[in-house]
Amino acid sequence: MSDTTLSALLLGLLEGLTEFIPVSSTGHILLAGHFLGFESAGKTFEVVIQLGAVLAVMGVYAAKIGRTIVGLPNDRHAQRFAASVLIAFLPAVVVGVLAHDVIKTVLFESPRLIASMLILGGVVLLIVDRLPLTPRHHDAERFPIPMAFGIGVIQCLAMIPGVSRSGATIVGALALGADKRSAAEFSFFLSMPTMAGAFTYDLYKNRDVLDLGAVWEIAIGFAVAFVAAVLVVNWLLGYVSRHGYGLFGWWRIIVGTVALAALSMGF
Fold it and tell me: Which residues cross the membrane (predicted)?
């Protein structure tokens, strides 16, 4: 197995394992790519394997998505649920379009910033996980519209690599009254339009520099990301219901600290 193929396998596994847990898949992918010396033109590899994770969560929730779509014409519950996800998605659209170039060319090229955000996000996650919050909302499909919008605004913090999209949305949902399980589940639902939109916009912005020559590496990364993401989505809800988010906070702190130490030594 070539070094490039091994890197593609590792990065695809990282994407699938970390996309839906609050540890920042982008941070892990960018740091791993930096230390492995792996880079693709226009971030083609990174963009396409993210689609694998998007399709994974859509597959897990295919039945629920289908029921919602079928019920949109006359089911008020379906209409309200779809509206809450759409409204939560809109802030990311505005910020993502306006700040896309800065995010991709400045923030994504700063490994120290990414590592620092991993540590800071880990501390925040540990604090929020231990606060004596009293949940008022236990069904992700019934979050009030203002609450959904608030989660969407908080999600915009994840434009900074290392913050974590799922971490921002989960912490936002917990702070706004969700229990731990419904916070994670709403993060799953919101990930579908957010990640699909980011994938489409990245593909459009990088259309002139995309490198589709490394088809084998892209295919490996995509497939591994898909399978790993399916396993994580199916496992995560039960885990956080029983144990909370402390494990992920400590993981972020450890990874961020090790990365900063390695960068300080010139790696």
Answer: 48-69, 81-100, 112-131, 143-163, 183-204, 216-237, 249-266
